[in-house]
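This section describes the prediction task in plain terms. A model, or a person checking by hand, is given the sequence of a single protein chain and must write out its three-dimensional structure as a string of C-alpha cells. No templates, partner chains or ligands are provided. The sample shown here is typical of the held-out split.
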Amino acid sequence: MMKHNISAAHVVLVPHDMKQSLQDVIALWVGEENCRFVMKDEIVGKISSTSKIWAATFNKLWAFNLTEFEKVIVLDGDILIRTDIMHWFDYPTPCAIQAGNDLNWNSGAMVITPDSMEFQQMLSRLPHLERYDANKAYDSDPMTSGYGDQDFVTAFFLGVQKNATDDRKRCVMPTESAVLSSSLQIPDFSYFNKFQPWIYETVHFTVDKPWRGDTQPDHPFVCSMLREWNESMQGVEKYYDLIPPIENDYLRNCGNSSIIAAQDQE
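The expected answer:
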C-alpha cells in the first residue's frame, strides 16, 4: 500500500488468541493503534462444529463492525496490490468480484460500509448455518450456498437487497480488480497476461500462496506475479527475530522466464 501511496488508514484484523510474537510483528508493521482484535468466540464460537462450515474464515465479518470508518476495503492476507485502488471507495457497497461462473462474491477483496446493526444481524444467523446440501429439503433459506464466509455474505446481502425499500442493487467489481491466481492460468487470460498485464489491479493468490510448501508454480505469468509479491516483501527481514522467514522456495520451478508486456518492449 505504501508503495502505491495509498493514503487510507491501514487496519489489520488480528485474532485475539494469535501467538504473541505474531501480534508484536503486526503492531510494529502497522502500529498498535491500527490493530483490531477479533473476539473469535463472538463469531467462530457461534458456528456449530457439526455445521461442516469453514468457520475460521468467518472472522473477517468483524470488518462490518469497524463503524469508525465510512467505508472499508477488505483484503485477505494473500492479496498482492499492484496499483492504487483508492477508486474502489467509489463503488456502492457492499461490492466484490465474482470468479468464473460462481454467483457468490469472492470475499477476499470487498468494499463495505460497516454497520453495527447489520453486523449483529449476521452474528444472529451464524448458529443456524450449515453446509448447503442440494439433496436436502429445507423449510427456510439456509443462508449459504456452500461452506465459506463468502457464501454467507452473498446470501445475507441478497436478502438485504430483496427486502430493501430503496433501489439497492448488487455491486460486482470487474474480475481484474482482484483476479484469482488460478484464473491467470486459464487460456482465456493469456492475451491479457502477455499484452495487458497492467489491467490486474490486485492478484489473489488463492492456490499459489508463497508460504505453503506445496506452492511450486511453473506458469510464467503466475511466476511473474510471485516475483512481484517477493519484491513487495522487501524490508520484512527486519522482523526475522520475531518470525522466521518463509522457507518454501516457491520460485524453484520458475526459472528465468518472465512475461513482458508488448508495450514495454518498444
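For orientation: Residues 259-266 have pLDDT under 50 and may be disordered.
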